[in-house]
Design a protein that fits this description.
The protein has one domain. The chain is mainly α. It contains 14 helices and no strands. The two termini are about 10 Å apart. The chain is globular, with a radius of gyration of 26 Å.
Length: about 325
């Protein structure tokens, strides 16, 4: 006696197709109301936070002066305009982190010097984020702020290393694709880095998470529907690169020993970068409760088994019951 198809055993449901990396990052997201503050509102709030705190206002500018003194003593020939990107958000700041060693060190040691610069850059990111989180929460900067920032140092260093990878990819792609598409790559790749990982250090400070958790949650926060995080990253990259070109071309080329107006311009641009750090921190803190945590690895496996095909034990059990029913029919 033949069995009718679909009578005894229901057809196995197909497992959902696995999405690729780019599809999961840049794929379609359904529109919806987003709790993320508007770009203009977040920038205004970040600027107020930076300008209202002497630590956030003075300390980074002193850092610009200190690094300038060190590189000039090491034989830096100029121009001074490159220091306009000293406090930029990675991976834009990677241009300076890798560019200065190429000028001050031999060619074979230049890239190594870029990786060594990851440590001071990471310390700056961690301490700045620790101060920003407290100021945006309405607190004053204390030793505890710096202590919380130091806990996020592994995440900050990891972000700097990832930014070097973005920088290398941008450099190679620009040389291969030529000046036309290469220019788009020089804008798009840094914007993608800021879009995906711009919240990572803030997450590590405010939620005391590890590097992997902070980076992955930054990607989920960036992809909230209606947040306009990619637009914000593109606007910032385009604006900062335009300012950098103005400061380093013949029309705005500042000598290695700049005058007071040159210092004023460079410090003002770095203050703008500090406001961008505060903007990113404010935008994440406003949506922190809306960003879901990543499911545990065991939960993912159980979910895949339930949605996909039956397990081996279930298949063996079904085969055994089927054979028993056939024997009974024969009898």
């Amino acid at each position: 006696m033949s069995e009718r198809p679909g009578y005894r055993n229901a057809p196995a449901s197909k497992a959902p197709a696995r999405r690729g990396f780019l599809d999961s990052v840049l794929g379609y997201r359904p529109p919806g109301d987003s709790p993320t503050p508007k770009i203009r509102t977040a920038f205004a709030r970040g600027a107020v936070a930076v300008c209202s705190s002497p630590w956030l206002l003075i300390t980074p500018l002193i850092a610009v002066l200190a690094v300038w003194l060190v590189v000039v003593a090491s034989g830096f020939p100029g121009p001074f305009g490159v220091f306009g990107g000293f406090l930029a958000v990675p991976p834009i700041s990677t241009n300076m982190d890798v560019g200065l060693p190429t000028v001050l060190l031999p060619t074979k040691l230049a890239l190594l010097g870029g990786f060594v610069s990851v440590l001071p850059r990471g310390i700056f990111l961690a301490l700045t984020s620790g101060m920003l989180v407290d100021v945006l929460d309405g607190k004053t900067v204390t030793v505890g702020s710096l202590r919380r920032g130091i806990r996020a140092l592994p995440t900050a260093i990891g972000l700097c290393i990832v930014s070097i990878g973005f920088w290398i990819f941008t450099l190679l792609a620009a040389q291969i694709l030529g000046p036309g598409i290469g220019t788009l790559v020089q804008v798009g790749v840094p914007a993608l880095g800021i879009y995906l990982f711009g919240f990572a250090v803030t997450i590590a400070v405010s939620e005391r998470r590890g590097m992997a958790e902070s980076l992955s949650k930054s990607v989920r926060a960036a992809r909230l529907p209606g947040s306009n995080n990619l637009l914000f990253a593109l606007l910032y990259v385009f604006g900062s690169l335009a300012i950098q070109v103005i400061l380093t071309t013949s029309y705005g080329r500042f000598d290695v020993n700049p005058a007071a107006p040159a210092w004023a311009w460079v410090l003002l641009v770095n203050l703008f970068h500090m406001c961008i750090y505060a903007t990113l921190a404010f935008r994440y803190l406003a949506i922190a409760d809306s960003v879901a945590d990543a499911p545990a690895r065991g939960a993912r496996t159980r979910g895949a088994v339930q949605k996909g095909s039956p397990s081996k034990k279930q298949q063996a059990k079904g085969t055994g019951s089927k054979s028993k029913s056939n024997k009974n029919r024969r009898r």
